[in-house]
Here is the input.
Amino acid sequence: MTVDADLVDRLERLERRVRALEDEQEIYELMASYGPAVDSNSREEAARLWISDGIYDVDVGEWRGQEAIASMLGEDFHQTCLASGCSHQVSLSKVAVDGDTAVATGYMGLIVRDGETFELRRQTVQRWELVRTEAGWRIAHRTGRLIDGGPEARGLLARALD
Amino acid sequence: MTVDADLVDRLERLERRVRALEDEQEIYELMASYGPAVDSNSREEAARLWISDGIYDVDVGEWRGQEAIASMLGEDFHQTCLASGCSHQVSLSKVAVDGDTAVATGYMGLIVRDGETFELRRQTVQRWELVRTEAGWRIAHRTGRLIDGGPEARGLLARALD
Amino acid sequence: MTVDADLVDRLERLERRVRALEDEQEIYELMASYGPAVDSNSREEAARLWISDGIYDVDVGEWRGQEAIASMLGEDFHQTCLASGCSHQVSLSKVAVDGDTAVATGYMGLIVRDGETFELRRQTVQRWELVRTEAGWRIAHRTGRLIDGGPEARGLLARALD
Here is the structure.
C-alpha cells in the first residue's frame, strides 16, 4: 500500500538519524570514561577503552596494545600524579562519524594538586580515531600532542576542520 | 495486519531509543545549569536543581534540603569567590540512566580570579545521583570530593566504571 | 484508516523530537569547532562560524562581520598566544532552541603555555546567539565577558536561567 510504503520509508530515515545520534552519544560516553578510569588508577579498565592492538601516541612516548597502555599507567609519571591528586579533563570535541569509524578532536588537560591549589601541568590536543566493535565504540589510534606553540598540536586541530 | 504490527513495533522501539537520548540530554542540561546559577548568585535557582529534600555532600560540609543549600551559597566562602569572580566548570560526565534514576560521574573545577590571571582553587570529583520528577530530572544526592590523592575521590570515580 | 492515522501522528511527533536532539547536537558541534579553528590559526574557518554580518562582542573589543573577526585573529594578542601555545576551552553550555534561533550560555577559558606549566589567562562567560541557516547553525551575535566579579558576566549567566 502507498501509505505503508511511505511510512516505512520515513521510519527507516528516522532510524538512521537516531543511530547517528546514538553514535555521537556513545563516543562522548567513551571519552568521558577515560578520566574516571585513569584517575582512579583503574589501569585495565582504561586500557580496555582501546581495541586490543590499539595505539596511544603521545609526544612523550608511544604505546601499542592494551597491555602496554596499562603498564605505562603503572609507571612513575602517572603514579606520581595520582599520589598528588590528578584529573584528566577531556573537552567538548568535534566528532565526525563515517560508517564504522569516527574521529573526535578536542583537548585534554592534566590537572595536578599543588599545595593549596591546582596546577594545569599539561594541555594537549587529542585526536581519537575510533572504530565500532561488537562491544561498542573503541579507540584504534589516539594521538596527543602538547600545546607548545609548535606545528604538531596545530596540525591535529587543523585536520578536524574538514 | 502484519505490516502494521511490525511498524508499530519498530516505532515503539524507536520511541524508547529517543527517550533514552532525551534523558541524557536533559541530564546534561541540568548539569550545565549549575554554573550559571551559582556564578550569578542565583541561590534559589541553584537550590531548585535539587529535589526539595535533596542532599549536597561535599568534603567541606553537608547540606540537606533546598533551603540549606541556598543558605550555604549565601555564606562567606561562596560570596568571597563571587566578589573576586568565579566560575564552576562541570566536565563531560559518564551518565548511566536506569528507569527513573540516573548517576552521572565527572569533575568540577572552581576557578577564581587572582590578579591578572585565574586560579584553579578546587578540583573535585562529582557524583550526581538524579531522579526523574514531573518537572524533569533533579538532583537527589550529589557528592563532591577534593582530588587530593586520597581514596575518597578515587572511590567515586571507580564506582562509575560499572 | 485509524491505525495509519495514529501511526503517522506518532511518527510526526518522533520526527520533531529527533529534530530537537539534532539541533542540540549541531549546536554543540559548532561550539566544539571554535577552539580547533582559532588554535590552529585557521582564521577564515573561525570567522565562518558566524553569519556574514555576525558580531563578536567581547569586553576587550567588538568586531562586526566575518572579515573583521578574521582580521582580529591575525593581530598581536591572538598571534602572541598562538606562539606560546594556546587553547580555547568551551564548556558544557545551557542551550535553548526556539524555532530557527537558539541561545547557548556557558564559559570559555583561554589557556596559554607559561614555561613548564599552563596558565589560565582569561575565563569568560559566553553567550552564543545562534541562527539556523541553509548551511547549518551559525553565530549571529556572540558576547564574551571576563569573570571579574562585576555585573556583566553575572548578568549574562542570569539571563540563561529562564
Notes: The two ends of chain A are 42 Å apart (CA to CA). The helical segments of chain A are 2-39, 43-47, 66-73, 76-84, 151-159. The first helix of chain A runs from residue 2 to 39.
